[in-house]
Amino acid sequence: MLLSIITPYYKTLDYTKELAKILEPQLNDKIEWIIVDDGCNEKELDKLKAKVIHLPTNSGNASKPRNIGLDKAKGKYIAFIDSDDLITFDYIEEILKHLKYDIIFLSWKSYKHNVIVYGEPPKWNCSVWCRVYKKEIIGKTRFREDLKIAEDWAFNQEIKYETSYAIEKQIYFYNCKRKGSLTRR
What's the topology of domain 3-173? Predict the structure, then answer.
């Protein structure tokens, strides 16, 4: 398995179905999509081309679902896509070109940012969705489940890498405007 994509899910079915329309055609036997349903028991997810894990109760943040995804991931590389975000139709193709690096930084767009990464992402963005990690550098590092915010920052502080590459093409679309999202709260 080359790449595991982990998506923590919480009450974003319509957004996740839109993501699936773009992501599923890119999946193959070397790419897995893991969705961790955080206490919603959303059976519609079982129809998607993904390994779906249903947690019995809501954990209150994305850390526990991401940690479960990390524990189940079989890929040599790990990517994270939030359930209300989108990607381009060549997201996986672009990532696969650069799998020789420890970490790959992604350029991205949102309703208020248009970020092209040259070298490393801006210091103000420590999100895991704009990075692809060699599983080996993650090791036993996990997201802090006691944090409601900044869990990405704490996770990334633990990750040590030697080689990196920045994909300058914007292949990720971050949706921080959604009402009810953790970012908005």
Answer: Spore Coat Polysaccharide Biosynthesis Protein SpsA; Chain A (3.90.550)
| Rounded-to-integer distance, Cα 130 and Cα 132, Å | 7
What are the distances in angstroms from CA 163 to CA 99, 119, 120, 123, 159? 11, 11, 11, 18, 12
The domains of the chain are located at 3-173
Report pTM. Answer: 0.95
pLDDT in tens, the chain (185 residues): 999 999 999 999 999 999 999 999 999 999 999 999 999 999 999 999 999 999 999 999 999 999 999 999 999 999 999 999 999 999 999 999 999 999 999 999 998 899 999 999 999 999 999 999 999 999 999 999 999 889 999 999 999 999 999 999 999 999 975 454 444 43
